[in-house]
Design goal:
By secondary structure, the chain is α/β, with parallel strands linked by helices. Among the domains are: about 120 residues, Rossmann fold; about 140 residues, no CATH class. The chain has 16 helices and 14 strands. The strands form 3 sheets. A 6-stranded mixed sheet has the order 9-10-11-12-14-13, sandwiched between helices. Strands 2-3-4-1-5 form a 5-stranded parallel sheet, covered by helices on one side. Strands 6-8-7 form a 3-stranded antiparallel sheet.
């Protein structure tokens, strides 16, 4: 098994909570991690029709059978089980007794937050980060290969061809997970919608335009984007909302969590295609944002992330609020640093000199090169050191 940075937090959480919940996209390694971390617990998968039917028809009997503890996999298949689990752990609150895993469907997150409040630690496992990939024999120091392969563990554990694996993943997601999340009659229309969303990763999310291109209404486009968010395929990054003396946009940006799947949806079948691809910059920006989010989640931290854009057109790709400062990040896929890389950060720094922003702004450019530099305007960070931005100074 590829070592995961979330493992120590998982062990720690099991010492203090009767239930630990691990969510994230399908195939991100949740089951593998939990079974390796808690080998003493019985593994029960609700994908198994017999177990699923047992849990639905007789939830009390199901939990009594596994009263000494269990890893209950794919809990979203029987979300009503969570309410009965609350009663069980109130009766016997021994820590680390139950570990729940599953894709964070809306039904799961609502059930967990309402029924298990104060009784469960909720952790999130995303596909492999760049730092985690360095522990694999298949690691690669080439940027375009990294973007193209993405981070789903099966590709590296089994040494599978990324192109074929992503094709199977996308088909399974649409045919199975989408049906679980929402009644969508025309799955081919959703597949087209998914591809259209891929072409908009790193861009402002215009639901009217997206719906028009997909041949669906704006409310349907909004609902379908929520499906992508609920299954951890994509996220809406919110704009910075504090007043800096300028009118700020209110529209979120759309990002995918995994650039390997993103590349497949864009029709990129070989890493060499990325060199001249018109969306290479957006793909690289998506990778930088997702890497920094992974670093947060795999440390057990909920990221306070946004982007800055005002109506003059000034935009900074990512703002991460921290205790001591606010990290402002620009993502530039070029391998050679250029002076204009720093322009948006410099302009934002001038606006930042107001009492409303007591925390200092720390500026960084993550670029496609390999030489770190300390500039007067901030740090120049090679792409393969993006994770160091969140390390303690």
């Amino acid at each position: 098994m590829i070592p995961r940075r979330l493992a120590p937090l998982l062990e720690e959480a099991a010492l203090g909570f009767p239930v630990v919940t691990v969510t994230g996209p399908r195939q991100s390694g949740k089951t593998t991690l939990c079974r390796a971390t808690f080998p003493e617990l019985v593994w029960v998968s609700l994908e198994d029709p017999d177990h699923r039917e047992y849990a639905r028809v007789d939830p009390r009997g199901f939990l009594h059978t596994w009263r000494e503890g269990a890893i209950i996999d794919e809990i979203q298949r029987v979300p009503e089980l969570v309410s009965y689990l609350q009663t069980e752990v109130d009766r016997d609150p021994r820590p680390g007794r139950f570990v729940l895993t599953g894709s964070e469907h809306l039904s799961l997150s609502q059930a967990t937050s309402q029924s298990l409040a104060g009784r469960t630690a909720i952790l999130h496992l995303l596909p492999l980060s760049w730092r985690e990939l360095q522990a694999t024999p298949a690691k690669d120091d080439d940027l375009d290969t990294t973007l193209w392969r993405g981070g789903y563990p099966a590709i590296f554990d089994r040494q599978l061809t990324p192109d074929r694996w992503h094709a199977a993943y996308a088909a399974t997601y649409v045919e199975r997970d989408v049906r679980q999340l929402r009644e969508i009659g025309d799955l081919s229309a959703f597949q087209d919608f998914l591809a259209l969303c891929a072409g908009r990763s790193g861009q402002l999310l215009n639901l009217s335009a997206l719906g028009g291109d997909a041949g669906i209404t704006q409310p349907t486009a909004r609902a379908w984007v929520s499906v992508l968010e609920a299954s951890w395929l994509a996220l809406r990054l919110r704009p910075w909302h504090r007043n800096l003396g300028k009118r700020l946009v209110k529209t979120p940006k759309l990002y995918f969590y995994d650039t390997g799947l993103l590349c497949w949806l864009l029709g990129i079948r070989e890493p060499e295609q990325l060199a001249a691809h018109p969306l290479r910059g957006a793909i690289f920006e998506t990778w930088v944002v997702s890497e920094l989010l992974k670093e947060h989640y795999h440390r057990g931290i909920s990221p306070r992330a946004s982007f800055y854009r005002d109506q003059r057109g000034l935009e900074v790709d990512l703002l991460v609020e921290r205790t001591a400062d606010v990290l402002a990040v620009e993502a530039k896929s070029g391998r050679t640093a250029a002076a204009d890389f720093w322009r948006p950060l410099a302009e934002l720094q001038l606006l930042w000199q107001e009492p409303i922003n007591p925390r200092p702004l720390r500026s960084a450019v993550v670029y496609g090169g390999d030489q770190p530099q300390h500039r007067s305007g901030g740090e120049l960070v090679p792409w393969n050191r993006v994770h160091t931005l969140l390390d303690e100074p």
